[in-house]
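User: Fold this; tokens only.

Assistant: Input:
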Amino acid sequence: MGKMSLRDIAILLAVVVLALYGLAAVLWFMTFERDWSKSAKAYDAAVKTYRKEANLIARRDELQQQYQEEEEKIPVLGESELANATWMGRLGSIASENNVAVSRQNYGKEEQEGVLNKLEIDLEWTASLQSLVKFLYALETADHAMFDVRSIGVSNSGKNTGYLKGKMTICCAYLREEEAKGKSK
């Protein structure tokens, strides 16, 4: 190949410039498609959040009524009343009423979450299946108490007696008199 004419050099430069423009356009469209896909996903998530929040706003009166019904069930303990003694005694009564033998009770530290106080109690128990079900139902429907079974472990008692044994963690929720007065204001 000899010398290239000025015309050939101009054509070669034009082809190189067009190839670079084509490459730039392809890269731009590839990033544009990726960004468009990302934006479409963000838009779909925003629409989903909007619909969920609009549904909650539409159900506000119903949810407010449910909240007030539950709020009325929250027990109130006096300032000097010991939470661990109150709730461990209450759990012991409910357990004995439903033929659940509690072999060990341990309580955690009283914690405050907003105006609500919580106390977790760990139980080791032995009972028949029917007694256990009745006990759990009694916890759920107890008057002036809010019990939440956080965890439960069940195994057979190992003696083919028809009894079960296990451990459970129950969270007791309540207000103190001072918080109850502040809430009602």
